[in-house]
Amino acid sequence: MTRTYAFIIFFSIVLVLYGLINTYIYLRGLSALSSAPAVRQWFSIVFWFLALSYFAARLLERIALSWFTDGLVWIGSFWLGAMAYLVIILLAVDVLRLANAIIPFFPDVITKNSQAVKQTLFYAAAGVVLFTIIGARINQALPQIKTLEFVIHKKSPLRELNVALITDVHLGTIICNSHFKRIVEKINSLNPDIVLFGGDLVDEDIEPVIRQNLGETLRQIKSKYGLYGITGNHEYIGGVEAACRYLTEHGVVMLRDSTVKIADAFVLVGREDVSIRQFEGKQRKPLVELMNDADKSLPVILLDHQPMNLHESAEQGADLQFSGHTHNGQLWPFNYIAEAVYEVSWGYKRIGNTHIYVSCGVGTWGPPMRTGNRPEVVNVKLKFE
Fold first, then answer.
1. Between the chain's N and C termini, which has fewer beta carbons within 10 Å?
2. DSSP state of 263
3. If you average pLDDT over residues 93-115, what whole number do you get?
4. What is the mean pLDDT of residues 357-378?
């Protein structure tokens, strides 16, 4: 019951903030269009359709999934990105207006034609946001292959291991079958020895995944030692047991606070996502307990969705840790927030003898767009000495 109250409070705060932000954008738009009543009328209709479409879709999905709910999800998701950049632009304009009120510096052509300037700025802002959305969507649709090479100073029957690492796919309505097939083609082009999913393979509800039969596309991934995955926070948001059952049925070995030795050559350690505490009131196993079950004489690869307490993996003797979750903010300038929150929000760090790589992910959550980073399929070439 306590978790239910916490969710209600959290959702209420999100809803209030969403309403306040959209009201701010709407009022500023009305002010800019005060001399164009016909445009204002259409602006009001279109604006609130865009602003309400995402929540309307999520409510209607509880009744039935359809092309209509899918369309609303897409529209609403693009609006989330547009909303973020409209707020940034409007706040920047308002800061300049406040500064000008304190120390006037606007030229006369602006002050004497303020309404015309407002309307021009409104159209300019809309144009900038539109082109940003288009560019960010193209960027998201073209994942890159990121190649890394690490040496692990341990003996193994294998001299090399070719790993494909994929995090934060977020399979569902937005990351649909056509997009996922492009990701699978990238993975198979690497001819990997093993494929590792670093959490959030499923977005939220498993139903859109089942309806699109995304599991059959998942089966098309080829690797010598198979596919292994861990849970992320989004598996818990949508129902972790149903998600893990579906992934297992379609060829992914889910490591949930467990270890597995592969070909007597290396060890995988997969941690349950820390969200288990929030959603199920449980604690995941301490890393020291998991590592005690691992054969540390062999190379040890640790999968942990959220890159927290990175020093712990080094202290417990992991040779390599893969994480995701952050998306590196996904949209600029939110990458600066991610960098402030996480020790590593994207990229490589070495702590002692432990190599750590945090991927920005290959999919998206919310807006189907990325600015500031390219989605990535990570190809890690390991050498054992």
1. N
2. T
3. 83
4. 94
Contacts 24+ apart (CB under 8 A), 235-241: 235/199, 235/200, 235/201, 235/202, 235/273, 236/273, 236/275, 236/276, 236/278, 236/279, 236/280, 237/204, 237/275, 237/279, 238/202, 238/203, 238/204, 238/205, 238/206, 239/205, 239/206, 240/276, 240/279, 240/280
Whether 190 contacts 165, CB under 8 Å: no
pLDDT of residue 59: 85
Q: What count of other Cβ atoms lies within 10 Å of the Cβ of residue 11? A: 10
The residue-averaged pLDDT of 70-94 equals: 94
- Contact predicate 88/129, CB 8 Å: no
| The model's pTM | 0.90
| Identity of the amino acid at 156 | S
Cα separation of 19 and 32, whole Å? 20
269-324 pLDDT, tens digit per residue, is 999 999 998 888 889 999 999 999 899 999 999 999 999 999 999 999 999 999 99
Q: How many CB atoms lie within 10 A of CB 162?
A: 15
Q: How far apart are CA 41 and CA 29, in angstroms?
A: 11
Give the domains, in start order, of the chain with CATH numbers: 2-139 (no CATH), 144-384 (3.60.21.10)
Burial of 168: CB neighbours in 10 Å, binned 0-12, 13-18, 19+:
buried
Confidence label for 117 from pLDDT (cuts 50, 70 and 90):
confident
What six digits make up the tokens of 114? 């303020």
Q: Detail the DSSP E strand segments found in 89-226.
A: 144-152, 160-166, 194-197
**Calpha distance 358→348 (Å, rounded):** 7
Which amino acid is it at 361?
G
Contact 61, 205 (CB under 8 A): yes
Q: What is the pLDDT of residue 116?
A: 83
CA 216 to chain centre: 23
Position of tokens 């998206």? Answer: 364
Burial (0-12, 13-18, 19+ Cβ within 10 Å), 26: middle
Adjacency order of strands within the sheet including 376-384: 144-152, 376-384, 160-166, 194-197, 227-229, 252-254
